Amino acid sequence: MARVGRWILSFLFVVQMYAMMALMAVFFTPWAIIDRRGAFAGVHTYCNWVRWTARIMVGLRSEIRGQVPEGEALIASKHQSFFDIILICSVAPRPKFIMKRELIRAPILGWYALRIGCVPVDRGKRAQAISQMMTGVAEGRTEPGQLIIYPQGTRVAPGAAKPYKVGTGLLYQELGGPCVPAATNVGVFWPRTGIYRKPGLAVMEFLPAIPPGRDVEDFMAELEEVIEGASNRLMAEAGFPTGGH
Question: What global pTM score does this model have?
Fold first, then answer.
Protein backbone atom coordinates (compact mmCIF):
# COMPACT_ATOMS: atom_id res chain seq x y z
CA MET A 1 0.00 0.00 0.00
CA ALA A 2 2.85 2.39 0.80
CA ARG A 3 4.30 1.91 -2.68
CA VAL A 4 0.88 2.53 -4.25
CA GLY A 5 0.56 5.75 -2.27
CA ARG A 6 4.04 6.84 -3.36
CA TRP A 7 3.19 6.07 -6.98
CA ILE A 8 0.07 8.24 -6.73
CA LEU A 9 2.11 11.08 -5.24
CA SER A 10 4.68 10.64 -8.03
CA PHE A 11 1.90 10.83 -10.61
CA LEU A 12 0.49 14.01 -9.07
CA PHE A 13 3.98 15.48 -8.94
CA VAL A 14 4.56 14.79 -12.65
CA VAL A 15 1.15 16.24 -13.59
CA GLN A 16 1.71 19.48 -11.70
CA MET A 17 5.29 19.71 -13.02
CA TYR A 18 4.15 19.81 -16.63
CA ALA A 19 1.12 21.97 -15.85
CA MET A 20 3.39 24.51 -14.17
CA MET A 21 5.75 24.40 -17.16
CA ALA A 22 2.88 25.59 -19.36
CA LEU A 23 1.73 28.23 -16.89
CA MET A 24 5.20 29.67 -16.33
CA ALA A 25 5.90 29.66 -20.05
CA VAL A 26 2.82 31.79 -20.66
CA PHE A 27 3.72 34.11 -17.79
CA PHE A 28 7.36 34.68 -18.82
CA THR A 29 6.95 34.67 -22.63
CA PRO A 30 6.21 38.40 -23.09
CA TRP A 31 9.38 39.29 -21.17
CA ALA A 32 11.35 36.56 -22.92
CA ILE A 33 10.34 37.90 -26.35
CA ILE A 34 11.62 41.35 -25.47
CA ASP A 35 14.74 40.30 -23.59
CA ARG A 36 16.57 36.96 -23.26
CA ARG A 37 16.85 37.66 -19.54
CA GLY A 38 13.15 36.92 -19.34
CA ALA A 39 13.75 33.46 -20.80
CA PHE A 40 16.49 32.74 -18.27
CA ALA A 41 14.28 34.03 -15.44
CA GLY A 42 11.54 31.65 -16.55
CA VAL A 43 13.95 28.72 -16.73
CA HIS A 44 15.43 29.41 -13.28
CA THR A 45 12.02 29.91 -11.68
CA TYR A 46 10.64 26.71 -13.17
CA CYS A 47 13.68 24.59 -12.26
CA ASN A 48 13.63 25.79 -8.68
CA TRP A 49 9.89 25.08 -8.54
CA VAL A 50 10.50 21.48 -9.66
CA ARG A 51 13.24 21.03 -7.06
CA TRP A 52 10.98 22.40 -4.31
CA THR A 53 7.91 20.35 -5.26
CA ALA A 54 10.02 17.18 -5.65
CA ARG A 55 11.13 17.62 -2.04
CA ILE A 56 7.66 18.44 -0.73
CA MET A 57 5.60 15.92 -2.71
CA VAL A 58 7.83 12.86 -3.15
CA GLY A 59 10.63 13.40 -0.62
CA LEU A 60 13.30 13.86 -3.29
CA ARG A 61 15.76 16.39 -1.96
CA SER A 62 18.47 17.82 -4.21
CA GLU A 63 21.90 19.29 -3.69
CA ILE A 64 24.52 21.06 -5.80
CA ARG A 65 28.16 20.37 -4.98
CA GLY A 66 31.34 21.93 -6.24
CA GLN A 67 31.89 25.34 -7.80
CA VAL A 68 29.16 26.37 -10.23
CA PRO A 69 30.65 27.85 -13.44
CA GLU A 70 29.46 31.42 -13.82
CA GLY A 71 31.28 32.88 -16.81
CA GLU A 72 31.82 31.52 -20.30
CA ALA A 73 32.25 27.79 -19.74
CA LEU A 74 31.95 24.34 -21.29
CA ILE A 75 30.27 21.81 -19.01
CA ALA A 76 30.39 18.10 -19.87
CA SER A 77 27.79 16.33 -17.74
CA LYS A 78 26.57 12.86 -16.93
CA HIS A 79 22.95 12.57 -18.07
CA GLN A 80 20.60 10.11 -16.34
CA SER A 81 17.18 11.76 -16.42
CA PHE A 82 15.31 15.03 -16.85
CA PHE A 83 16.15 15.92 -13.25
CA ASP A 84 19.86 16.50 -13.90
CA ILE A 85 18.85 19.08 -16.51
CA ILE A 86 16.66 20.71 -13.86
CA LEU A 87 19.52 20.79 -11.35
CA ILE A 88 22.08 22.32 -13.72
CA CYS A 89 19.63 24.91 -15.04
CA SER A 90 18.57 25.90 -11.52
CA VAL A 91 22.08 27.17 -10.71
CA ALA A 92 23.92 27.93 -13.96
CA PRO A 93 23.36 31.67 -14.66
CA ARG A 94 22.96 31.35 -18.45
CA PRO A 95 22.72 27.66 -19.38
CA LYS A 96 22.52 26.50 -22.98
CA PHE A 97 22.72 22.99 -24.37
CA ILE A 98 23.91 20.94 -27.29
CA MET A 99 20.55 19.25 -27.90
CA LYS A 100 18.73 16.89 -30.28
CA ARG A 101 17.24 18.82 -33.20
CA GLU A 102 13.85 17.13 -32.79
CA LEU A 103 13.41 18.87 -29.43
CA ILE A 104 12.89 22.14 -31.30
CA ARG A 105 9.41 20.83 -32.17
CA ALA A 106 8.52 20.22 -28.52
CA PRO A 107 5.82 22.64 -27.33
CA ILE A 108 7.18 25.35 -25.01
CA LEU A 109 10.54 23.65 -24.51
CA GLY A 110 11.62 24.10 -28.11
CA TRP A 111 11.08 27.85 -28.25
CA TYR A 112 12.64 28.49 -24.86
CA ALA A 113 15.63 26.29 -25.75
CA LEU A 114 16.35 28.38 -28.84
CA ARG A 115 15.75 31.61 -26.93
CA ILE A 116 18.41 30.81 -24.32
CA GLY A 117 20.90 29.86 -27.03
CA CYS A 118 20.75 26.05 -27.23
CA VAL A 119 22.48 24.46 -30.24
CA PRO A 120 20.39 21.84 -32.09
CA VAL A 121 22.15 18.98 -33.91
CA ASP A 122 20.97 15.94 -35.83
CA ARG A 123 21.51 12.55 -34.23
CA GLY A 124 22.74 9.46 -36.03
CA LYS A 125 25.01 11.18 -38.55
CA ARG A 126 28.23 11.52 -36.61
CA ALA A 127 30.34 13.67 -38.97
CA GLN A 128 27.38 15.87 -39.90
CA ALA A 129 26.33 16.24 -36.26
CA ILE A 130 29.84 17.30 -35.21
CA SER A 131 29.98 19.84 -38.05
CA GLN A 132 26.56 21.23 -37.10
CA MET A 133 27.60 21.40 -33.47
CA MET A 134 30.77 23.35 -34.25
CA THR A 135 28.93 25.73 -36.56
CA GLY A 136 26.14 26.27 -34.07
CA VAL A 137 28.54 26.98 -31.23
CA ALA A 138 30.60 29.34 -33.37
CA GLU A 139 27.48 31.27 -34.35
CA GLY A 140 26.45 31.54 -30.71
CA ARG A 141 29.71 32.89 -29.34
CA THR A 142 28.23 36.37 -29.12
CA GLU A 143 25.85 35.02 -26.47
CA PRO A 144 28.05 34.21 -23.45
CA GLY A 145 26.96 31.49 -21.09
CA GLN A 146 27.51 27.98 -19.85
CA LEU A 147 27.44 25.54 -22.77
CA ILE A 148 26.33 22.09 -21.56
CA ILE A 149 27.00 18.90 -23.50
CA TYR A 150 26.29 15.28 -22.66
CA PRO A 151 29.33 13.24 -23.75
CA GLN A 152 27.33 10.01 -23.99
CA GLY A 153 24.76 11.71 -26.19
CA THR A 154 21.66 10.60 -24.31
CA ARG A 155 20.28 9.59 -20.92
CA VAL A 156 22.05 6.55 -19.47
CA ALA A 157 20.47 4.58 -16.63
CA PRO A 158 22.50 3.91 -13.48
CA GLY A 159 24.66 0.84 -13.95
CA ALA A 160 24.38 0.91 -17.75
CA ALA A 161 27.42 1.45 -19.97
CA LYS A 162 27.54 3.68 -23.02
CA PRO A 163 30.66 5.02 -24.76
CA TYR A 164 31.65 8.68 -24.65
CA LYS A 165 31.46 10.41 -28.03
CA VAL A 166 34.42 12.24 -29.50
CA GLY A 167 32.32 15.32 -30.33
CA THR A 168 32.87 16.61 -26.80
CA GLY A 169 36.63 16.43 -27.28
CA LEU A 170 36.46 18.21 -30.62
CA LEU A 171 34.33 20.94 -29.10
CA TYR A 172 36.78 21.32 -26.20
CA GLN A 173 39.63 21.61 -28.70
CA GLU A 174 37.76 24.11 -30.88
CA LEU A 175 36.77 26.37 -28.00
CA GLY A 176 40.28 26.36 -26.54
CA GLY A 177 39.20 26.78 -22.94
CA PRO A 178 38.79 24.57 -19.87
CA CYS A 179 36.01 22.01 -19.52
CA VAL A 180 34.09 21.47 -16.29
CA PRO A 181 33.01 17.83 -15.80
CA ALA A 182 29.78 17.22 -13.88
CA ALA A 183 28.66 14.00 -12.19
CA THR A 184 25.27 12.96 -10.83
CA ASN A 185 23.23 10.21 -9.19
CA VAL A 186 19.74 11.46 -10.12
CA GLY A 187 18.84 8.32 -12.06
CA VAL A 188 18.75 6.35 -8.81
CA PHE A 189 15.66 8.33 -7.79
CA TRP A 190 14.22 9.73 -11.04
CA PRO A 191 14.35 7.16 -13.88
CA ARG A 192 14.84 7.82 -17.59
CA THR A 193 11.21 6.80 -18.18
CA GLY A 194 8.21 6.09 -16.01
CA ILE A 195 6.31 7.87 -13.25
CA TYR A 196 7.64 6.54 -9.97
CA ARG A 197 10.01 8.85 -8.03
CA LYS A 198 11.98 7.61 -5.03
CA PRO A 199 12.77 9.68 -1.94
CA GLY A 200 16.38 10.47 -1.16
CA LEU A 201 19.13 12.95 -1.97
CA ALA A 202 19.82 13.64 -5.66
CA VAL A 203 23.18 15.30 -6.25
CA MET A 204 24.72 17.21 -9.13
CA GLU A 205 28.44 17.73 -8.55
CA PHE A 206 30.66 20.08 -10.54
CA LEU A 207 34.20 18.67 -10.62
CA PRO A 208 37.55 20.46 -11.04
CA ALA A 209 37.99 21.84 -14.55
CA ILE A 210 40.16 20.05 -17.08
CA PRO A 211 42.56 22.74 -18.34
CA PRO A 212 42.83 23.61 -22.04
CA GLY A 213 45.52 22.24 -24.30
CA ARG A 214 45.06 18.47 -23.94
CA ASP A 215 44.89 16.44 -27.12
CA VAL A 216 41.46 15.01 -27.85
CA GLU A 217 42.28 11.40 -26.96
CA ASP A 218 43.82 12.27 -23.58
CA PHE A 219 41.01 14.69 -22.82
CA MET A 220 38.30 12.12 -23.57
CA ALA A 221 40.03 9.48 -21.42
CA GLU A 222 40.31 11.85 -18.46
CA LEU A 223 36.77 13.15 -18.90
CA GLU A 224 35.25 9.68 -18.85
CA GLU A 225 37.36 8.60 -15.89
CA VAL A 226 36.47 11.55 -13.69
CA ILE A 227 32.76 11.69 -14.58
CA GLU A 228 32.16 7.95 -14.26
CA GLY A 229 34.22 7.70 -11.08
CA ALA A 230 32.42 10.58 -9.39
CA SER A 231 28.98 9.42 -10.58
CA ASN A 232 29.64 5.92 -9.24
CA ARG A 233 30.70 7.45 -5.93
CA LEU A 234 27.49 9.50 -5.75
CA MET A 235 25.34 6.50 -6.69
CA ALA A 236 27.04 4.36 -4.04
CA GLU A 237 26.37 7.14 -1.54
CA ALA A 238 22.70 6.84 -2.50
CA GLY A 239 22.74 3.09 -1.92
CA PHE A 240 22.98 1.99 -5.55
CA PRO A 241 25.36 -0.97 -6.11
CA THR A 242 28.17 0.08 -8.46
CA GLY A 243 30.29 -3.05 -8.27
CA GLY A 244 33.23 -1.13 -6.90
CA HIS A 245 34.05 0.46 -10.29
Answer: 0.90
